Amino acid sequence: MTVYESVLDAIGGTPLLRLKKLGVGVRPRIYAKLEFQNIGGSVKDRAALSMIRAAEQAGLLKAGGTVVEGTSGNTGIGLSLVAAQLGYRSVIFAPAATAAEKVRLLRAFGAEVHLVADFVPRSHPDHLANRAAAFAASTPGAWLALQYDNPANPGAHFAGTGPEIWKDTEGAVTHFVASVGTGGTISGTGRYLKEASDGLVQVIAADPEHSRYGGGNGSLKYTEGAGHPLHPASAEDIWPEAFDTTLVDKYFSISDRDAIFTARRAALEEGLLIGATGGTALAAALELAATLDESHTIVAVIPDSGRNYLSTYFDDAWLTSLGFLEPTTPDGTIRSLLTGAPAGVHLLANGLTAAEAAVELHTRSLGPSEPAFLVLDRGDSFGTVHPREVVGVVTLESLSSVDDAAPAASAAVAYRTVAVGVPASETPDLTEVAAVLVDGRIAATLR
Ligand SMILES: Cc1ncc(COP(=O)(O)O)c(C=O)c1O
Question: What domains appear along the chain, each with residue ranges and CATH number?
Fold first, then answer.
């Protein structure tokens, strides 16, 4: 039995678990690295402890000091846990959409939590990183962890996660799969495994579908904690220094649906309650495994537990409300009202004038009351959109009611979103446009 003298000693040293059911039929061995077994519940405990220790050694964090960070949750949980043990105050800035469970955990470990705007350009003062930096700058004794650029973040994985995997697989690991948030996990672990194996271990980034890392356009996603979204108004696309992209041999692009439903399968089939970034890594590992044979051993990182997401990924009502689940109902669902091909969603760049938008809608032969969505301008790489990227809905009729030179957005009409699996009997009043959500994205309109 392991006996710890300090809770901080219970960070790291996580087990590997062979996945026999999810991986049934595939030829390589697949192991999950169970990072939710860390004392604060996630892989980020390692980075938190390592960054705090490095700051102490560098004299940046002293007795009575305050630990500050902008984080989607897990790093904050790790930092607040370690800070409390070492006698520091912790102040955490987190996006408003952070799962409620994580916010409660932060508070349970004594953090002061500030929820901030979700999706604003990096240069905006309300951006998470800027809010945290401003707070740290105006607070005596404050130290800002800066996990995205802090070398002690990947350093924790070079010193811990990598050697653990090498030792526990007795050097048999051939492929390492991890999702990428700051890039700390994949970079530190990947570098260690490549060095230990003379470059033989392949490093695989499992990336949410729209993430910039894997070449997506930066649109928002539901997989919390990994990937790199980009607000279109951002002047530049800044990637973390903690992420050493030269280590990545291959990216797998994983949809929110695959991430979430692979996490749910892991709970049912393997008894592993994991979050969607663990689902992302396992979905990539399974796709990869189909291309490999018995000589290969895959290790996939499970960053945190599904307990963080009982009100989201593991809640059928939440999934249904976003169009990820479609319950069977006697009268059918909204989907049955989408006759033939989905009506087609017309997207227009926000920022057009009313006259420009009208020309565009004429070109597309839209009728006077057919809706088009004004969305954050991504040049011409719109793809599909997340509802938070919609600025408003216009029609030729509404555009004709404002000045030609006025912003098209000033002609916005009322609209609402409705999930594709809502019973047809609950069809919204169609005096306003209804945007139909499938897998959390706007896929059709009802009028
Ligand atoms: C749930 C979850 N998964 C994955 C990651 C990515 O880890 P890293 O920042 O080491 O790339 C994070 C990071 O915050 C996370 O919270």
Answer: 329-446 (3.10.580.10)
